[in-house]
# Entry
Amino acid sequence: MSRLLGLLVLVVSIGGGWAWMEYDSFRSTPLAIADGSVIYEVRRGASLATIAKDLEEAGYIQNGMYLQWYGRYTGQAKRIRAGEYRLTGDLVPDTLLALFVSGSAVDYTLTLLEGWNIRQVRAAVAGHEALKHTLDGVDDAALMEKLGLPGEHPEGRFFPDTYHFNRGMTDLEFLQRAQRKMDQELEAAWAERAEGIPLQKPYDALILASIVEKETGQAGERAQIAGVFTRRLHKGMLLQTDPTVIYGIGESFDGNLRRRDLKQDTPYNTYVRAGLPPTPICMPGRGALRAAVNPADGKDLYFVSKGDGSHVFSATLRAHNAAVRRYQLKR
# Structure
């Protein structure tokens, strides 16, 4: 009997030692990923048992049970975060679980460009394959309600920037980030506004900044452009800016602004209506926001495009007409 018991103890010891060596070897063995990397998605709510099974079936690890044991022993099993992860051949089970716990998932980006209107913003968001789309069929008014801004116009309310996110972020969550970012940037610009500007509230600055954004792509001209419009507002002059007219025409605009368009009465036609238009006409960037609230000093009341992206500024109508003849009419 004692010999049998001794033999049993020996067998268990050998088996336990073998299992420990195999487990220890498992922990130090890199993932079986020969070249480059693979993307693995930890689905929301997935258990470590499910993940271990997936990885074993894919051939990346040899024994999923060992991964479960290690995760439970270290307490990492309950701290794994959902997302897409890039797996490489230099990862071992220890660093693999650390990666899943860190939440350092694959990064996606979407850039909203300065000067885009709300149609372009929504098209870009709807077209990104890594976002979860929940806004199909949701019009602009309903979108603003979902953002907690019922009754507000969506134009200009999203900040143009490059945004980083993980797969599975919803389109609404993405737009919430862009909307909050615009609120922050507008608040910061408004806090640094110059004294005496003819703007009553931050939203006025947003509207003016959107016009500045559409009028020039030259960073060095933004404050000058804003200065012209600021002086016109002070004097009660019409702004007479083509981008607002084009915005008022809407999707039917064919790229050719005609004289009759300048006479067509819409809420956005600053050739026939005084003051600022009722809403922004695009998404202004940080430079345009800062220019709108800190316009350049001077006497210029007019500007005309030179055809190369820059403008000629004039203080009198006579000088402006001469610039128009030279640069627009080529006389």
Remarks:
- The CA atoms of residues 22 and 28 lie 10 Å apart.
- The chain has three domains: 32-106, 108-185, 196-327.
- Residues 4-16 have pLDDT under 50 and may be disordered.
- The chain is about 45% helix and 10% strand.
